[in-house]
């Protein structure tokens, strides 16, 4: 046996007013959502521009830069690093960075990386590196 909806037998004028109120609320929320989407779209465009600028500066920097993950694998390198290590970028990405750190400095390097990730701040360090030759 079907049950009667909660609005069955309600005053049609009151129902129409309630529907108008809900429609107005939904339209207001829709306007807010559109404004939010527009703000997010502008923010995203600005972030893309900033990322591209950073990428260009990072890649063109005269100093070698290597960005590494917590597990000490290479996430990114700039052109100067590629030139210094004499290894193509695709072969560097994902490789263990310790392969390019002088053996005598590896323990100090591991400690440095652990401290960077423990404190959550970016740092830089000078290291003696080794190349494939």
Can you offer a commentary on this structure?
A two-stranded antiparallel sheet has the order 1-2. It has 133 residues and is mostly helical. The chain has 4 helices and 2 strands; from the N terminus they run H-E-E-H-H-H. It has helices spanning 12-60, 79-85, 89-92, 106-119, and strands spanning 66-68, 74-77. The N and C termini lie far apart (85 Å). Strand 1 and strand 2 form a beta hairpin.
Map the helices and strands:
Elements: H1 12-60, E1 66-68, E2 74-77, H2 79-85, H3 89-92, H4 106-119
Antiparallel strand pairs: 1-2
List keywords for this structure.
133 residues, two-stranded antiparallel ribbon, 2 strands, elongated
Tally of helical runs: 4
Mean pLDDT: 89
Please estimate the helix content.
Answer: 55-70%
Unreliable sequence segments = none
- Profile the largest sheet: 2 strands, antiparallel
Shape: elongated
> What's the arrangement of strands in the largest beta sheet?
1-2
The number of E-state strands comes to 2
Order of helices and strands: HEEHHH
Radius of gyration over C-alpha positions, nearest whole angstrom: 29 Å
